[in-house]
Amino acid sequence: MVVSTDFLAYRFPNKDIVKNRGRIQEVFLSDELEGFIFSHFSALQAYKFNVLEEDAEIPSIFHTYPFKPYVYSTREYLLQAHSFLNGMAQFQIEKAVFSRIKPYSFSISKAYELFLKLCETYPKALVYLVSSEKLGTWIAATPEILLEAHKSFVFTMSLAGTKKSSQFSTPWGEKEKIEQQLVTDFIENQLKKVGAEQIELVGPYDYQAGPVTHLRTDVSAYIPSGKIIDFVKVLHPTPAVSGVPRDAALNLIASVEAHDRFLYTGIVGKISKTDATLYVNLRCAQLQNDTAYLYLGGGYTLQSIPELELDETENKSKTLISCMFSVNT
């Protein structure tokens, strides 16, 4: 296979691995959209993978994005985090997500080997590997469902609040409980905005995602209009990746974060006119030559301590790094 051809491999939970050759196309999120899609964090830019060949061979060369993302030093991160907290207080933001990028030594030539390792290690996650001229090469093992839909019935989740899985017996703090409730309330309110009925909440409960455990609440509902994309548009980006109030949090993120989130915290998955299985693009990395750039976020409230939030992002990085280390050795 020549390098100019785009490649996509993915594995949904309890499903077989799919490997396709094709071409990434820029699209708009609309009722007519069908296929495997990606979006930027803002969802203003979206991409569809047009399949040319199914059960494709693994490419011998993977695409490399021409620009490296900006990486904070520890000192820069802490300074920007304090600025972020000041902005939250100034604009009365209850919760907001501040992210960073962590480089890790890893050869892009081992991308598919890493994909297989992630599939093996995280059977409950959506695992994907995409390599394209437009996007470069990205890989992820994301645990967070944005939306599952069949006709007018929808399922989503509120996944917010994090601690080490090794601390399973440690009680949840007030900060994590507030963070979880803010996200759950937002989802319920957005469902009501699109006329949803029969809204049901189950949780919050502990949900382990490899090295970290989250608080999770499951949300199901019936949307009489049957327009899945309408709910996607009002739901994304959820406070789990942006904040509350959302518009104020998005403005703060844009003004303080030094990097472009690109595909991180965007939408990824399959959609059709009547069905959808869409995830939030978390635990992801962009692969460039001999470096993996891991995108990591921490949910800040006014009670947050930047040093602890930095530790949280380090714990989240272990989802990918543990598998990269295994592939490297």
Keywords summarizing the entry:
alpha+beta, 6 helices, Anthranilate synthase, 16-stranded antiparallel sheet, 329 residues
Largest sheet: 16 strands, antiparallel
Rg calc: 19 Å
> Structural class from helices and strands?
alpha+beta
Count of domains: 1
Read across the widest sheet, the strand sequence of neighbours is 10-11-9-8-14-13-3-4-2-1-6-7-15-16-5-12
Tell me the β content: 35-45%
CATH class: Alpha Beta
Total beta strands? 16
CATH T-level fold name: Anthranilate synthase
Order of helical and strand elements: EEEEHEHEEEEHEEHEHEEEEH
Outline:
The chain has 329 residues and is of the alpha+beta class.
Task: Describe this entry's structure for a reader.
With about 325 residues, the chain is of the alpha+beta class. The protein has one domain: Anthranilate synthase, CATH 3.60.120.10. The chain contains six helices and 16 strands. It has helices spanning about 75-90, 110-120, 175-195, 230-235, 245-255, 305-329; strands at about 5-10, 20-25, 35-40, 45-55, 95-105, 125-130, 135-140, 145-150, 155-165, 195-210, 210-220, 245, 265-270, 275-280, 285-290, 290-300. A 16-stranded antiparallel beta sheet has the order 10-11-9-8-14-13-3-4-2-1-6-7-15-16-5-12. A hairpin with a 3-residue loop joins β13 and β14 (about 275-280). α1 (about 75-90) packs antiparallel against α5 (about 245-255) and α2 packs across α6. The two termini are about 25 Å apart. The relative contact order is 0.22.
